[in-house]
Design a protein that fits this description.
By secondary structure, the chain is of the alpha+beta class. It has 7 helices and 19 strands. The longest helix has 16 residues. It is globular and about 50 Å long.
């Protein structure tokens, strides 16, 4: 029995003898099945060819990503906090070096995930890190491919994790969420956004899409809802899902002017 992993989106599935017939996440219109067809791997095989690279992004903020890139190519974040360490978003591979490094700084108090594209090996990570609770929004629970007792689907608009707040924004997925950490950046705050919003290449704006690979935009109502959901929180830095896609300063104003630009562009 194997926990197969989809090589396109990096999602780990429940145990089975044979690879699953399809990946529902890749079959969905927000993702894609490659022209070469569906392929599968597992964590042991992945560990022979890939490793995790850590980068210190700021004081108390470490990004983790697979090298070479795998699946969607996202970065996860290990955030050191006053109430323990939070893993924001997740990756397909857990390696021994990362496990030891996390244990050495006190383990994980929680795993918090923005949306189904980054569920990856969330239950495997929890098992490797003391069965840390895994917070996902209940509106996306239908997309879970490997469940476990650590899973904590949450409902409503916000979830407090110590001093951090998960904020439900919707848009890309019904339960798409971001994480606000007010103690970072010397108390000016940071926002971790997955791809609920995407930091643009000039790192001065964010944008909003239902699907990035398939270029499906969001409507005005959804973009306004995302902007309004984060408006009550103060943040300087915006960390999105991909390497280098970080807004360094003036985060609140960046979201405001990005929503304004987007709404202006789609106005009839
Ligand atoms: Zn997939
Ligand atoms: Zn996504």
């Amino acid at each position: 029995m194997t926990h197969f992993i989809c090589t396109t989106c990096g999602t780990q599935f429940s145990e089975s003898d044979e690879p699953p017939p399809t990946c529902p996440i890749c079959e969905d219109d927000r993702q894609f099945v490659p022209q070469s067809g569906q392929e599968w791997t597992d964590m042991a095989t992945l560990g022979q060819t890939h490793s995790l690279v850590w980068n210190e992004e700021a004081e108390g903020v470490h990004s983790l990503q697979l090298s070479p890139s795998f699946g969607i190519g996202q970065r996860a974040f290990l955030i050191e906090g006053p109430d323990g360490n939070i893993l924001w978003d997740c990756l397909s591979l857990v390696d021994e070096a990362s496990k030891a490094r996390i244990a050495a700084i006190g383990g994980l108090s929680a795993i918090a995930i923005s949306h189904p594209h980054f569920y990856s090996s969330m239950i495997g990570w929890s098992a490797a890190c003391g069965n840390a609770p895994v917070h996902i929004h209940a509106d996306d629970a239908q997309w879970v491919q490997r469940s476990g007792s650590a899973l904590r689907p949450w409902t409503g608009e916000t979830l407090r994790i110590g001093q951090a707040t998960m904020i439900g924004c919707g848009g890309h997925f019904d339960g798409s969420s971001v994480l606000h950490c007010p103690w970072l950046e010397g108390g000016r705050g940071a926002l971790f956004v997955g791809d609920t919003m995407q930091v643009t290449m000039d790192r001065r704006f964010v944008s909003f899409m239902r699907s990035y690979p398939n270029l499906i935009p969001l409507d005005a109502k959804a973009v306004t809802a995302i902007s309004q959901a984060v408006q009550p929180y103060r943040f300087e830095t915006i960390y999105s899902a991909f390497p280098g896609r970080t807004v360094e300063s003036d985060g609140n104003r960046v979201v405001e002017r990005s929503a304004e630009r987007y709404l202006k562009a789609i106005a009839s």
